[in-house]
Specification:
Layout (H helix, E strand, L loop, with lengths): L8 E5 L1 H8 L7 E5 L3 H6 L3 E2 L6 E3 L6 E4 L1 E5 L7 E5 L5 H6 L9 E2 L5 E2 L4 H7 L1 E2 L11 H13 L5 E2 L1 H12 L8 H12 L4 H11 L2 H4 L1 H4 L2 H10 L10 H10 L4 H11 L3 H22 L4 H10 L9 H11 L1 H15 L3 H6 L4 H28 L1
Parallel strand pairs: 2-5, 10-11
Antiparallel strand pairs: 1-2, 1-8, 3-4, 4-5, 6-7, 8-9
Helix pairs in contact: 5-7, 5-8, 7-12, 11-12, 12-14, 14-15, 14-16, 15-19, 16-17, 17-19
Cofactor: Mg(2+)
GO molecular function, one term: ATP binding
Pfam families: PolyA_pol (PF01743), PolyA_pol_RNAbd (PF12627)
Amino acid sequence: MDAFLEGLEVYCVGGAVRDARLGWPVTDRDWVVVGATPEAMRRRGFRPVGRDFPVFLHPETHEEYALARTERKAGHGYTGFVVHASPEVTLEEDLARRDLTINAMAEAPDGRLVDPYGGLADLEAHSLRHVSPAFVEDPLRVLRTARFLARYCGLGFTIAEETRALMSRLVADGELAHLVAERVWVETEKALGEPHPEAYFQALRACGALAVWWPELAADEAALDAALDRLPCLPEDDAELSLWRWARLVEHLDDDERARLGERLRLPKAYAALARQAALTRALWQAAEAGPLTAARVQAWLDGVDAWRRPERVPPLLALVSLEHAELATDLSLAWRLAGQVVPRALMEEGFKGKALGEALARRRQEAIAAALAGEAGESTA
C-alpha cells in the first residue's frame, strides 16, 4: 500500500472500474476515501483542490482523492446541491449519488468489486441505466447519458427505457434551461470526440433536449439527419476531430442560425471560425452542382476563408470538398496553386502601389484561377 494512504479506506471508483471491465482504455483513475476528514488528508500531505466538496491531490501521483459524500437537491440546475462529506458517509451512500449504474461501482485495493446497484450486470447487458430516481435532480445527466451512448453504442449499449423516460421528464420540467452554457458545451465537445457522436444528438432529440439548446438543428429533422451522416466523413486527423465534426454538423445552417447557436453555447472562437469556413465551402460545391464555377466565385471563396493571409486553411477545406466532389477538389487545388503564385512583391516591381496594387493583385489572381479552371475543363473534355 502507498505510504501516504496507509490506514485509509480507499477505493477506485467510476470510469476506471467501468472501462477496465469493458476492455476500454483507462486513462485516469478517481478515488474515494471513506472515514477520513479534510484535516487528516492535509496532515498526510494531500493538497485540497475542491471548492464545492473535499477533493485532494496525492502528493506524488497527483491523482484525485475525494472524501465520501452525499448530495441533496436544493435548487435548479447541476449546481443546486447541498454536499455533505463526513467520516460517517459510507461507500454505498457515495455511490448512490452517481448517475448511471455502470459508473457506480468501486474496487478495493485487493481487487474486490463493490457493486451495490447492479453496474456489472448492466455492463454485461449493455444497458445505460440510472442508479436511482435522484437522477432527475441533475439535468446535466441528460447530456452525460447521451455522451456515454456516443462512446459505447458501438459495443451494443442502449439507454434503458426507464432512464429515457427520466431524461424526457427533466426536459419537460424545464430543468435543462437552468444549465449554464459552458457545461453544455463541455459535454457536447466531449461527445464530438467519441466514436459515435451522432448518437449523442439522436438521444437528445429523442428526449426533447435538442430543441432546448440546439433549436436551429432541431428545426429541420431531414437536414439534421443528413448532417449526422456527415460526421464520420472528415478531412482531418484525430487531433482536430471534435472541431471538424462540429463544422460538419452546422455547415448547412445560415449565418444567423450559426451565430445564434454559437452565442447560446458560448462557442470557442476556433469552432465558430471553422464552421463559417465549412459553410462557405459547402456553398461553393453546391454552386458547382448548379453549373460551372466562375473564377470570380472561386476567388470569393478564397477571400472568404482568408486564404491569402491564412493559406494553411485551404488544404483541409479542399479535402472537405473532395469528400463531396473529387473532381471539383482537383480543379480548385490547381486554381489555388496558380493564384498563390501571384504575389504582391512581383507586382510592386512592375510599379504597382497603393490602391492600384490591390486591384492588380485581385485581377491577376482571378486571371490565374480562370486559366486553371479552363485548363482543367479542357483536359477533362479531352
